[in-house]
Amino acid sequence: MIVSFDVWNTLLDINVMLDALSSSLAELLGISDEEAKLEILKAREEIKKLRKAQKGSPERALEESQELLAKELNTNVEVVKRAAVKAVLKVAEEIIIDGALETLKAVKTEHTIITVGNVMFWPSAYTRLILERFGLADFIDRQFYSDELKAYKPMREFFEKALSHFPQSKALHIGDTFEEDFKGALNAGLYAVWINPEAEGVRRIEERGFEVRQIRDLLDVLRSLK
Predict the structure, then answer these.
(1) I want to staple 158 with a disulfide (CB 3.0 to 4.6 A). Which of 31, 140, 146, 151 is the partner?
(2) Of 146, 157, 100, 95, which Cα lies nearest the Cα of 122?
(3) Mean pLDDT to the nearest integer, 29-52
(4) Record's NCBIfam families (predicted)?
(5) Is-contact 210 198, C-beta < 8 A?
(6) In the chain, where are the structural domains located?
(7) d(Cα 180, Cα 90) in Å, to the nearest integer?
(8) Given its phi and psi angles, is residue 189 left (phi above 0), alpha (psi -120 to 50 degrees) or beta?
(9) Which CATH code for domain 14-90?
């Protein structure tokens, strides 16, 4: 089976990266970390709304988000790009989600692992660098991102482009967002696992869909599908 992982808030903690980005923007613009973080969150919410409605340009997914953040901060895109580089240099091992590395290791013993991720504010190369730096990339066979595939979750095309590289027909995707990861994967014909921290445990909520509380619960789902 192909097991597809979302990256941010599934393998890596987005809040750690956003805090580092806020700090870097604050340094470059001479504003407070709190002010920078507020503008980042506003821009992030706007981009998510556009993508949910599939109104954003798939070919310019990265550029659109960078431009929107620069506009919110009343600065230029170059500052956003510099801040993203600084943020990548700042993050430490705490960015790894608890249980992520152990789960990748366990899944890798029997399955092919890929990542499929949207990009926002920084290019996929930076995400690849973080996964490599902290050892997660050692257990990932292929990585796919929206700035490379020119499509983004929850678009059906995004999942289809990634899976077209593999002969196996059966695939499962796990992620933390209901619309982008869970519904997106189901609509593309995959099994889907939604990480919901408020879930009581592993629960089947669709014919091909499961709800889990944490990434480690994926192993129980995979055992149930054998």
Answers:
(1) 151
(2) 146
(3) 93
(4) HAD-SF-IA-v1
(5) no
(6) 2-12+97-224, 14-90
(7) 28
(8) left
(9) 1.10.150.400
pLDDT in tens, 129-179: 999 999 999 999 999 999 999 999 999 999 999 999 998 779 999 999 999
pLDDT digits (tens, 9 = 90+) for 65-120: 999 999 999 999 999 999 999 999 999 999 999 999 999 999 999 999 999 999 99
Model-wide pTM > 0.70: yes
Treating both helix axes as pointing N-terminal to C-terminal, what angle do 33-52 and 61-72 enclose, rounded to 10 degrees? 140
pLDDT exceeds 80 at position 54: no
Between the CA of residue 172 and those of 25, 57, 175, 189, 201, what are the distances in Å? 37, 26, 10, 9, 18
Beta bridge partners of residue 8, listed in sequence order? 12
CA 180 to chain centroid, in Å, comes to 10
CATH of 2-12+97-224 given 3.30.470.20, 3.30.70.330, 3.30.70.1290, 3.40.50.1000: 3.40.50.1000
Are β-strands 112-117 and 142-145 bridged in parallel, bridged antiparallel, or unpaired? Answer: parallel
If you search the block for the tokens 């790009």, which residue do you land on?
A: 81
Q: Is 22 helix (H, G, I), strand (E, B) or coil?
A: helix
Quick one: tokens of 208? 């091909």
